[in-house]
Amino acid sequence: MAASLRLGRQGILFGLRLSHFNKCVRRTNPWQEQVRRFFLSPWVLGGTPVKVEMPALSPTMEEGNIVKWLKKEGEAVAAGDALCEIETDKAVVTLESNDDGILARILMEEGSRNVRLGTLIALMVDEGQDWKQVEIPPPDAAAPPATQAAAAPVVAPAAPPPPPPPTPATSGPLRLSPAARHILDTHGLDPKLATATGPRGLITKEDAMNLLKTSPAPKAAPAMAAPAAPAASSPAPIPVATPPPPGSRPNIPPLSVPGKPGAPGTFTEIPASNVRRVIAQRLTQSKTTIPHAYASVDCDMAAVTKLRKDLAKEQIKVSVNDFIIKAAAVTLKEMPEVNVTWSGDGPQALDSIHISIAVATDKGLITPIIRDAANKGVQEISANAKALAQKARDGKLLPEEYQGGSFSISNLGMFGISGFSAVINPPQACILAVGTSRAELRLREDDQTLRTLQLMTVTLSSDGRLVDDELASRFLDKFRANLERPQRMALA
Q: Under 8 Å CB-to-CB from 408, ≥6 apart: which residues?
């Protein structure tokens, strides 16, 4: 027992001495700690860069274009600062930074087009790190299979050599059926190469088809070189069109290929913007999945014209389109069964009335939204419509300013169009096409006298699954009543 206590006491003393020795060694070598900290510092190892990827700036966006970078490499960035401008399928949207740091590397330069969602467009580092030493992360693991797939054709075995041309199998006078003669003449094949299986050496249609299957592809070079040799020895060569190689059929009309503008059979490729591609997709979706029904009505614009003149005297300037928007919104409020949309599960009734107005821009048609139009006055609708139209032309619409409409209006009256039919904007149920007003003589029913009316034709395109012909007729009748008596809209 005494020996065990003595050994335990000696072990404790040895441990204390060893601890004191380590402290002395560390105290006598302070440079080791500095070296360790230096090689573990972010300046040497480099911090993990913050990835900036192409975001989804609209529900229907699949790719975007880099319009302009608002920050330069090496410039400090704070959370909320604008990094770049991105053209989406609807407008040009500013991408804001979510983190503080330094913009280290721009991977997608200005003008980059069709950048898919999730693509790495820039790298950021934390403040205090060397942004010049940032390394571009390797691509995703999905890239090597594509590389292997692309390299596979290189190691593929060579294609077998073409079969030798068939030798003439017939001798003496040739006898061809009409079908065989047509096939051989069309494809430029020698009838002597065909094996006759018909009676008395007749070459049948089957013989011509068998020859067509076994004949090798003709070579164009020898065919063009043969007529060129005698032409070289003649003193005055006459330009002769090169005949097509045997076995080929002329393209009538010729195929269009990219080339010089104005040359026959050529065209010029025009790159489609994201807005144009989305418009094409949605129009195709609308016309192939929505059963369109059309109904038209003439509206007398005399009351609206007189009211506009009275308001102009009070320095209140509103357009005819503002009254149309108000009349459509009030009619939807009176007939909520038209204020619906179609989803995968069926009809959906909407609680709010948001009117989409079609605005033509250089990049295509876009439909900004006037929200709660039924609860706004004509003057407020006019101010909102002008502001949204200008933002649409400048490409500065926010997503909430063009998403979520319940009813669309397309007005071509200012272009002199008397009437037209518009394509429904899915998932909406209706769109109203408005033409120009015109003077027309009509017979008065009460006294059988003629009078001049200012008539405007409007055409309602409706989704037959949601708005049938009877409901569309009642909607147009009530819309006409609201537009011809503007004071009625104030009471609705």
A: 355, 356, 357, 358, 367, 422, 424, 425, 428, 430, 431, 432
Give CA–CA dist 179/206, Å, rounded. 9
Helices (H) and strands (E) in the chain, counts: 13, 22
Pairing of strands 266-267, 257-258: parallel
β 63-69/82-87 pair status: antiparallel
Q: DSSP code of 262? A: T
Distance CA(378)–CA(374), nearest Å, equals 10
Q: For residues 272 and 269, what is the distance between their CA atoms, to the nearest angstrom? A: 9
Task: Tokens 């009335």: give the residue.
Answer: 353
Question: Which sign does the torsion angle of CA 33, 35, 38, 39 carry?
Answer: negative
Q: What sections of 166-291 are H helices per DSSP?
A: 178-187, 205-214, 220-233, 274-289
Condensed to tens digits (0 to 9), the pLDDT of residues 7-57 reads 455 555 555 555 554 544 445 455 455 544 444 444 444 557 888 998 888
Task: Report, in this order, helix, strand and coil percent for the chain, each rounded to 5.
Answer: 40, 20, 40
Structure tokens at 488: 């009625």
pLDDT tens digits, residue range 92-138? 888 888 888 899 889 989 888 888 888 999 999 988 888 888 878 77
In sequence order, the β-bridge partners of residue 356 are: 369, 408
Instruction: In whole angstroms, give the CA distance from residue 442 to residue 453.
Output: 7
What does each C-alpha distance from 399 to 55, 56, 117, 412, 478 come to in angstroms?
Answer: 14, 11, 17, 25, 32
Distance between CA 425 and CA 354 in Å, rounded? 13
What SS3 state is found at 24? Answer: helix
Cis peptide before 42 (omega within 30 of 0): no
∠ CA 431-435-436, rounded to 5°:
155
Q: Whole-structure pTM over 0.90, yes or no? A: no
